[in-house]
Structures are given as structure tokens and as C-alpha cells.
């Protein structure tokens, strides 16, 4: 049995539901989960951005996605109820001081053994729990 590899882009829509988990101490792992309906409206896809905080700065330490291979996005693909999990760990992307917004327009690609995750038009802001300073902004291109 042969398998044909195909590339297909799945974009997180602007109206996705966003939830977050924060560590109690202000240092450790933050997780931002975006959930949205598949184009067929039958299932939910998820994408997680995992941030690591040192207390004075933060960075993206991992990316995870759980994508259903629905027939509208993946025509002639696998079973529409088949779930593809992609995980990229041990990253240190976009390190930024706490309470400074990070904006990056340039695309960044990270590869996993079963897929690729790319980031573009990214804006992230992590506020320190005990910090009361005003928020600054930086942009990298």
C-alpha cells in the first residue's frame, strides 16, 4: 500500500475561542489554547502555544495542534474523523521581557516528525503577576 504525501495549510481563524492557563507562581509554563470548528462543523480543531516564563522574560517553548482531517480541508484524504496530532517541543522562540508586547510579521516554521507548524503575524503579551509597570511594545521584522 502506498501513501501519497500532501501538504495542506490549516489557518487558525480570527474568531477561534481562546483560553489560557497560567502558573500560580508567575514562573513556569503558560498555555494558550485556540479552538475552532472544522469547516464541516462536525468537530473542533485545537492549537496550543506553550510559553515559558522565567519571571523576567518569556518565550515560546512549544507548539501543539490537534487537527481533524475533514473532507473540506483535506479533499480525498483520510477518514474525516481521523485526528492528526502535531507537537514541536524544546523551542526558545521570540524571547521577550515580561509586560512587553512582541509583534513579529515574518513567518517562522518549526518542523515535527509528522508535520510542520508555522507562525506569522504574531502578537504576544505576557503580563507579570507582580509587575505594575506600564506596557511597552517592540516590533521585529
Automatic annotation (TrEMBL):
Residues 1-24 are annotated as: Disordered. This is (California timema) hypothetical protein.
Amino acid at each position: 500500500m502506498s501513501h501519497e504525501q500532501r501538504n495542506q495549510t490549516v489557518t487558525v481563524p480570527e474568531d477561534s475561542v481562546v483560553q489560557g492557563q497560567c502558573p500560580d507562581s508567575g514562573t513556569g509554563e503558560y498555555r494558550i489554547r485556540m479552538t475552532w470548528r472544522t469547516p464541516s462543523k462536525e468537530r473542533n480543531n485545537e492549537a496550543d502555544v506553550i510559553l515559558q516564563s522565567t519571571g523576567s522574560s518569556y518565550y515560546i517553548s512549544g507548539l501543539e495542534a490537534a487537527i481533524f482531517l475533514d473532507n473540506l480541508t483535506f479533499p480525498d484524504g483520510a477518514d474525516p474523523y481521523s485526528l492528526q496530532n502535531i507537537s514541536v517541543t524544546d523551542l526558545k522562540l521570540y524571547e521577550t521581557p515580561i509586560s512587553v508586547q512582541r509583534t513579529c510579521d515574518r513567518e517562522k516554521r518549526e518542523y515535527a516528525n509528522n508535520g510542520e507548524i508555522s507562525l506569522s503575524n504574531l502578537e504576544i503579551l505576557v503580563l507579570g503577576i507582580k509587575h505594575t509597570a506600564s506596557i511597552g511594545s517592540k516590533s521585529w521584522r
